[in-house]
Amino acid sequence: MSVVVGFGWRSGASSATALALLRTVMGHYAVQKLDMLALPDFKQHDRVTQELALCCGMGVVWVTKQSMAVVQPLCLTYSASVAQKVGVASVAEACALVVAGAGGRLYGPRMVQGGVTCALAQGV
Q1: How far is CA 68 from its chain centroid?
Q2: 3-state secondary structure (DSSP) of residue 17
Q3: How many beta carbons lie within 10 A of that of residue 102, not counting itself?
Q4: Cα→Cα distances 103→2, 38, 106, 118, 122, Å
Q5: pLDDT score of 113
Q6: H-only helix segments in the chain
Q7: What is the CA radius of gyration of the chain?
Q8: Is residue 45 pLDDT above 90, yes or no?
Q9: Which of 3, 68, 81, 108 counts the highest number of beta carbons within 10 A?
Q10: Number of C-beta neighbours around residue 32 at 10 A
């Protein structure tokens, strides 16, 4: 079974914050190893994206808004402000679920720190 980490972040967030949050999330769910990094494709050219990909040292899958929209009913959290701004209410959870594939499930609701959201999903 694969473990996918999904991220979302607002402008001005830092990769240091994202990595600190990732450590927190992994510790919370007692996850030792990650298999894939799932990121929103509309953030492809963001500095945080490039730094996360380098620091995490795993494959990156770019997730489209259309794919995120399909899994919104499976997400555990809803942000009206994110929905208004980007068109989907949950980015990190949706990214993780899309890459986990059919039958994938979230470990729990996404966690937030310093403008960064992070969620883990388990693939089948």
Answers
A1: 11
A2: helix
A3: 7
A4: 12, 17, 10, 20, 9
A5: 96
A6: 15-28, 47-56, 65-71, 80-86, 92-100
A7: 13
A8: no
A9: 68
A10: 6
Q: Is the Cβ–Cβ distance between 9 and 82 less than 8 Å?
A: no
Q: For tokens 């809803």, what's the residue? A: 78
Q: What is the pLDDT of residue 59?
A: 82
81 token code pair: 């402000």
Amino acid at residue number 111: M
51-62 per-position pLDDT tens digit: 887 777 788 999
Which is it for the CA torsion 13, 18, 21, 25, positive or negative? positive
Give the side-chain half-sphere CA count within 13 A for 29.
Answer: 23
- The stretches of 29-123 forming alpha helices (DSSP H) are 47-56, 65-71, 80-86, 92-100
One-letter amino acid of 4:
V
Structure token pair of residue 23? 């450590």
Cα angle vertex 45, ends 40, 49, to 5°? 60
Give per-residue pLDDT as tens, 57-107. Answer: 788 999 999 999 999 999 999 999 999 999 999 999 999 999 999 999 999
Tokens of 123: 């693939």
Token reading at 42: 């509309």
